[in-house]
Amino acid sequence: MGSSVGDAAAPPLPPPPVGLAVALPPKAEDKSERKVDYLNLPCPVPFEEIQREALMSLKPELFEGLRFDFTKGLNQKFSLSHSVFMGSVEVPSPSSGAIKVPTAHYEFGANFLDPKLMLIGRVLTDGRLNARVKCDLTDNLTLKINAQLTNEPHFSQGMFNFDYKSKDFRAQYQMGNNAFYGANYIQSVTPNLSLGSEVFWLGHQRKSGIGFAARYNTDKMVATAQVASTGIVALSYVQKVSEKVSLASDFMYNSMTRDVISSFGYDYILRQCRLRGKLDSNGCVAAFLEERLNMGVNFILSAEIDHQKKDYKFGFGMTVGE
Amino acid sequence: MASRVSSKGKGKAARGSRGSDGRSTARCVKTWSTWAMKKAKVITHYGFIPLIIIIGMNSEPKPQLSQLLSPV
Questions:
Q1: Within an 8 Å CB–CB cutoff, is residue B51 touching chain A?
Q2: Is the CB of residue A119 less than 8 Å away from at least one CB of chain B?
């Protein structure tokens, strides 16, 4: 049976599976047998995105109030966005932590997305401008500019980043206002492990710092660790339980303020919705739901309950357009 | 020795005047660069979004002006 079909094909081909072998799933390729080619390691993720899976699952954009976003595409590359927000925003105040300030604003934005050039601009009703530029100067060198400009003097911020991406390492140089200079470097050490470090220098306050980071990822999990001389230790672990579910946990310790916080969360990516929930060591429970009502129409619910501080935040909104 | 002292003195005086020139040049550069940064900030603040719109309206396929203003 099998051998005759095998003869019809070229002799080196193995005979097609028969009997039980057809019913069972094919054995996965034995990866441990493949020798590691240390000269052909994959490119690591950028240093600032080292914890991106954990941040995506554990830190959704929780809000309180009403949010409505409308994105209108005029072109494949060009789109305009209108966004309305009415609700409370937490403003850090020196006296008692953060205070809630009721705000309402309309934000107009324009995006131009090209493979080589990306321009994103958002302007609010109070005159604040959020600008992001990403430009591929060459195949390996990228320039990124991030700026928040305000009408009030001395409150504007800007940052220039030069990224260099090579076969198995990435290097970045940053320059910001207030004489901020930083550089970071990340290198793939094995196909699963990448190590990086960063240094920064704040000119006006004469402060400098150095930090180290490590990221270990396989198909099913990502574990990261970050230590900085500012006294921050951050660990995170994300496990992809299945195609639709991933669980994440995160631990942060600040040795200057002796502050410890740990959180555990889940991320369900289903066909019609995306549900993210998280539980904190401060006793804070949060959830964020994005439900797809129709093509391009999403309904958003956000909730954050903190029994200790008696802070209850509920928000709802709608996103129209891609 | 006296000539050496006098030459040293003259050298110091010359260096002193060159030093003050250097300081005033640095101050000029700093003043101009601050002025340039302030102008650049104002230009970016008002012109960034119009720049994106101009670049977008000139990209292929060209969208219509009515599409820019209408909410549909």
A1: yes
A2: yes
The number of C-beta contacts closer than 8 angstroms across A and B is 54
Per-residue pLDDT tens listing for chain A (322 residues)? 545 544 444 555 666 656 665 556 555 544 555 677 788 888 999 999 999 989 999 999 999 999 999 999 988 899 999 999 999 998 888 877 778 899 999 999 999 999 999 999 999 998 999 999 999 999 999 999 999 999 888 888 999 999 999 998 999 999 998 889 999 999 999 999 999 999 999 988 889 999 999 999 999 999 999 999 999 999 999 999 999 999 999 999 999 999 999 999 999 999 999 999 999 999 999 999 999 998 889 999 999 999 888 889 999 999 998 6
CB interface of A with B, residues 172-231, below 8 Å: none
ipTM passes above 0.90: no
Residue A135 forms contact with B (CB below 8 Å): no
Give the other-Cβ count within 10 Å of B31's Cβ.
10
Contact (Cβ atoms closer than 8 angstroms) between residue B56 and residue A78: yes
Measured distance CA(A105)–CA(A87) in Å, rounded:
9
Q: Which residues of A touch B41 (CB under 8 A)?
A: 149, 156
Say yes or no: A111 contacts chain B, CB-CB below 8 A.
Answer: yes
